[in-house]
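Let us practice reading a record.
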Amino acid sequence: MVMKGSGSCLYIHGGAWRDPKVDSKSFAPAVEVLSNSSLKDSIAGFASINYRLSPYPSHTKDPSCPDDRSRNVHYPAHLVDVSRALLYLDDKYRINNRYIVAGHSAGACLAFELNNWYLPVAQLPQPACVLGISGIYDLEAFIEAHSEIPAYRALIENAFPDKSVWEEASPNKSHLSENAKWQNARAIIVSHSDEDELVEKAQASYMLDRARMAPSANEKIHFLPATGAHDEIWESGYILASLITKSIEILQSSPKDSIITC
């Protein structure tokens, strides 16, 4: 983690809530690009957040063990971990209203789930911008869109074994979205690539439709088209860095009722 002051970029990785090979280090290629870009002097810092994972005993190279407490959790544990990380960063660096949170795939779902409801004794820092990339925002629709592939249902049931919480955990339809942190962000950005082979573009549409119900939606809701396959977006570094750069530009042109220095 690198932090120097105000105006920071936080990243939440994907990996279907379970893949040990997709972790906080997946942000490194984009950080390298951004650190050598024209924005290098205006982004105050970067942080990439890890969280406990759901079981993955069938992983070919690094299967989870039943006694590994870091790889045997379910919703909302992933979200609680991300929330605690934000509280830590706010306590140490005072990031309230001074950071962008970007999430990819499952990480985009987590970014749009952020809500004080999960840690009621604490106040999560408000992001200035929420960027969801290749996100999964409607769990039931995600399964239905890939009904011919049992693995899709299996991965959702693995992270969310209690089906009664699927609607609550879906940012596009959750009753908790009324108080979600994205609601009060100055910029709400959804991104998707037409080349994504794993997550259907309809997911982006679901979140955009829900976001347009937010206060002052016309001024702050944006769609950013991405390029590349699902994992290529973060693997290349350049695609993710470009989306973050464009998000900063959108944020800088937004109303300055709360300021992020990037």
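A brief commentary: Residues 1-6, 257-262 have pLDDT under 50 and may be disordered.
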